[in-house]
Automatic annotation (TrEMBL):
Pfam families: HD. InterPro entries: HD_domain. It comes from Saccharopolyspora phatthalungensis. It comes from the Bacteria. The lineage of its organism: Bacteria, Bacillati, Actinomycetota, Actinomycetes, Pseudonocardiales. Residues 2-65 form the HD domain. This is HD domain-containing protein.
Amino acid sequence: MAAAVLHDVGYAPHLVDTGFHPLDGARFLRAVGANERLCAIVAHHSGARVEAAIRGLSDELAELADERSPLRDALWYCDMTTGPDGQRLTFDERVAEIERRYEPGSVTRWFLAEGYDELEAAVQRTTRRLVAAGLAIADQPM
């Protein structure tokens, strides 16, 4: 739950250091004594590895482990199926919404193209887990 609430804390203007919000947020959380797992989940949320490589921040991101777990997938799922105002979106709707907000050629658009498959796979894995747990309907768009 804490990761879902805090994953975008790095967007806060007074926390910006590298300009890469997953890393800036994770470093802030680490500095205030947050649990290392929480810091790592925040650092690696929603395909951050791909964007870090584009930004030349792979070594910095590697300071925190990427656990590649169902928890990580669930955070990515939440991030990639929720709009900026909290509205429920399908994965494809969320991708389209992000594309509308960022200019072609921007780092975010580049990252989205490069990381699309990894993001979609996390959403699909989480959807399967939700269906298996009886928390979602198999043919419902996610």
